[in-house]
Amino acid sequence: MRFFWIVMALLGGGLILLIANHDSGRVLGLENATFAATLYLGLWGAVLLVGILGSGMRIGEAARSLAFWVFLLLALIAVYQYRYELQDVASRVTAGLIPGSPVSMVTSEGNARVMVERSANGHFEVIADVNGQALRMLIDTGASSIVLSDDDARRAGFDPSTLRFQIPVATANGTAMVARARAQEMSIGAISRSDVPVYIAQPGRLGQSLLGMSFINTLSGFELRGDRIVLQD
């Protein structure tokens, strides 16, 4: 208990110094925020140490318990400090397990970037969120617009019976008639757009939905890096 009160006195003195030197911005050569964080950690360290010593454990057992809690604290701090890097690793693992999963990153300027790996079939496919539904789409720079297949359109909440298929477009299977529509929300990873114009193909005329240039042109740029394509918001 004597040790505890000595530590409390030191922490109290540090708090008084912090308050007295608030306007100067530094205490004992440290910035106020750093000094305050040191006091905070010192308080928890003192409570933990007194709790271990007051439990009646032997010195060896107390040292092991203290080492465990110190290690746990450092591990939690490390996880917090590297949380964005760990999120990036988790996204890359997901992309490897689920082909087409977009890997989102944020630049130092705060802009979103999304990376997509080439699929086993040699094409770039991405899982896009359209009106809250995950749809696998082919990134096609040769297509001028976003075109949804009939199945994907139904999943995204479009009712084909209310659409007018009057616009002819050229596809790999020949000319098909499509209908105009608008998606309330469309996201690829961290890149999101609202009120997006799309075309919907007639049933059986389009095997896979296409992510065309009408979406890509809303980006600041995109680049091909070997087996990866990077979309930049």
Automatic annotation (TrEMBL):
Membrane recorded as keyword: yes
Signal peptide per UniProt: none
Entry's transmembrane regions: 39-59, 66-84
A Pfam family this chain is assigned to: Asp_protease_2
Keyword set includes Protease: yes
Domain of life: Bacteria
UniProt-recorded Gene Ontology molecular function terms: peptidase activity
Keywords: Hydrolase, Membrane, Protease, Transmembrane, Transmembrane helix
Any one biological process term the GO annotation gives: proteolysis
Protein name stated in the entry: TIGR02281 family clan AA aspartic protease
Record organism: Nitratireductor aquimarinus
